[in-house]
Design goal:
six-stranded mixed β-sheet
Length: 397
């Protein structure tokens, strides 16, 4: 991903829900003036959620998600509906499509209630209006729009309603941009080893560089193997050093105490809104006992390598720190378990590939089951006794 692309996790997620053949895919195509989704008269053409990233003017960068019918039946149908329910976790605006020729039934009302309970801004779209003579309506507070994809009526009104609900996406907490001043020098320490992606920086590193530049700062990117030498050659002391968590101790030892130091992972916890929760949760490491279950969760689905931090390095460091015989479980991508009550601790990655809603869902789901929740960088800093130092650079802790 290039530095000038908006990552999916930072885009507004607009999801289209509704029963089979309500016209979700046709409506999405009409809204974007593109053939993004396959459309046919065959029942259940869309069998899995389909995501498309694009610029939807005047809104800006978005992710449009077409979902299977919420009334899909049978064994496979039930699995598809479960996949659709997972989409709720990341949805910023829901477009619920109803076939105006049949009206609403219990399934529609159940899903509209589900959207309401989850606090997802929703638009109810009465589709296929060219086939009815009476304008339908539902006694609800949800915004309602009448549309005919065939006659291209109501599409612009729907777009306007989406823009009104999504608005300009609320300015989320910055990763680092609000912590520095123009001309501040920030050194970014980036390991390039067997687990580093070929030919690019990982997303948190890209985001940090962009925020530093946007704030008028100076970003100096170095490898961990060259950090000590380059630091000694700097003509002025850096205002902050940000390191990859897996070389935290090494960089800490080489950085004078009067220089602010933190990690990409800790900054991601700040950006995603769970820094305080993660700092409180990490103390559970001191109470773990033999046989306790620890869940290590990642938001992305990269191929695991021999030096993988989540599945190899982190379990090793935790076992050495606690001195206990622990059981580690792993999940990645969208496969975050619904029931986490059996775990003594959940350690999540920075969540750079997950949007704000998805990360909020995961941490609140974990909190409701009274399971402590932290992340990679905070756990690593804590085990190396440098968490307090890592937090001093952050103004909101």
């Amino acid at each position: 991903m290039s530095l000038n692309q908006t990552p999916s996790s930072e885009r507004i997620h607009i999801s289209f829900f509704g029963k089979i053949n309500a016209g979700k895919s046709s409506l999405l195509n009409a809204l974007t003036n593109q053939d993004l989704c396959v459309v046919s008269d065959v029942r259940g053409t869309t069998t899995d959620p389909v995501q498309k990233t694009m610029e939807l003017l005047p809104l800006g960068p978005v992710v449009l998600i077409d979902t299977p019918g919420v009334d899909d039946d049978g064994e496979l149908g039930a699995l598809r509906v479960e996949k659709t329910k997972q989409i709720l976790r990341k949805t910023d605006v829901a477009v619920f499509v109803v076939d105006a020729t049949t009206g609403t039934d219990e399934v529609d009302l159940e899903w509209l209630d589900k959207l309401r309970k989850q606090g997802i801004p929703t638009i109810l779209v009465w589709n296929k209006m060219d086939m009815v003579s009476v304008k339908p309506a539902l006694d609800t507070d949800v915004a309602q729009v009448c549309v005919s994809v065939y006659e291209r009526t109501g599409v612009e009104e729907l777009l306007q309603r989406i823009v009104e609900l999504a608005g300009k996406k609320n300015e989320t907490q910055k990763m680092i941009g609000d912590l520095i001043k123009p001309m501040d020098v920030v050194v970014l320490v980036v390991p390039i080893d067997e687990s580093a992606p070929k030919g690019r920086l990982i997303l948190p590193q890209q985001m940090a560089v962009r925020e530093i530049l946007d704030a008028g700062g100076i970003a100096l990117v170095v490898k961990d193997t060259e950090y000590s030498r380059i630091y000694e050659e700097l003509q002025r002391k850096p205002d902050m050093v940000i390191t990859d968590s897996q070389v935290f101790k090494k960089v800490n030892d080489a950085t004078p105490r009067d220089v602010a130091l933190t990690s990409f992972s800790i900054l991601m916890a700040r950006k995603k809104g769970f820094l305080k929760m993660a700092v409180e949760g990490v103390q559970t490491l001191d109470t773990l006992q033999d046989g306790d279950l620890v869940l290590i969760a990642e938001g992305c689905t990269h191929h695991r390598q021999c030096g993988d931090i989540g599945s190899v390095k982190l379990p090793k460091w935790i076992s050495e720190y606690t001195g206990k015989e622990l059981q580690f479980c792993f999940c990645s991508g969208t496969d975050y378990p619904i029931d986490v009550s059996g775990y003594k601790l959940v350690i999540h990655c920075g969540g750079c590939m997950l949007n704000e809603n998805e990360m909020k869902h995961r941490r609140m789901q974990t909190h409701r089951q009274t399971v402590p929740f932290t992340n990679y960088g905070i756990a690593i800093a804590y085990m190396n006794c440098i968490l307090d130092r890592s937090l001093q650079a952050l103004q909101d802790v």
